[in-house]
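Reviewers of the previous submission asked for a worked example of the structure-prediction workflow described in the proposal, so we include one complete record here. The input consisted solely of the amino acid sequence. No template or homolog information was supplied to the procedure at any stage.
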Amino acid sequence: MSHLLFPTDKPAGEMAERLRRVRYVISDADGTMFTGAKATVDSAGAPSPELVETLVELTRAGVSVIPCTGRNRSMIKEDARVLGMPGWIAEMGGVVCTRESSQPEWSYFTGDMPYDPACGKTPHDVICETGVIDDILERFRGHVETYHDNGIGFEYREVTVALRGDAPVEEMQDMLDACGLPLYLADNGLVPRISGATTLNCDLDHPVGMHTYHVTPVGVTKGTGIVRFVELAGLEPDEVMGAGDSPADCVIADHVGVFLFMMNGLDHPSADEELTARNNIYLSSRPSTDGWCQCMRALLAAKE
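From that input alone, the workflow returned the following structure tokens.
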């Protein structure tokens, strides 16, 4: 199926007008900006300064890049600090920071899930205390496990619970529906490779059908995280461009002027459906970091 392609050189016409208005790029991290969770490699994993140089050029042009990711707060906060990003959205929209500094301004967002900040627990703790995560892990042993965020323990998450595997989505969702809290299973894309210890029954170098999932409060998505960020930052939606590599990221397109979908996400079985459901999604002509940088340079060219 054909999709709209993002310009690979200087945009013209209506697309140029759209891109000239962009002041913020709110982007997924892994598989979109980053390859292998690194900022200093290209899409093939070879050493490259391209991403860092592109981020510098965007900053010079007055365009801020905000990572919007399933990663936990501690991880994305450090990424943002090192790369000079002025804010971030973590845990699929569950934690939002509008000012990254030595004392960042951030807050939890739990959507429809009841949560009292005075309880002394994180929303993640509240979800785990229902017992539903342990029940899912036991029922689908070998087919689902807690996902340890690039080696950092899953217990360091604060709003969502990260899982990965190939267990039946409908059956896991039925278990969540019966746990007493309004929760859903957000699909954050295919797993290209598994490193480190795992309980999954699969080929670690070439896992087939393995997905990253986030047990998430109903009413929390990357889209709602962006809505909160846009409101708190005093922006208009057409001043924001989104980017991602998972069909779950496409919800971002509903809240921004232009959305970039990375071609490496086309392998996902629901990608075509999500892309054709919206008229402001454009497909990169190259995968992940290489494609992201190429499209950002087209954005910069539109502003010249």
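The two ends are 33 Å apart (CA to CA). We consider this example representative of the routine output the project will generate in years two and three.
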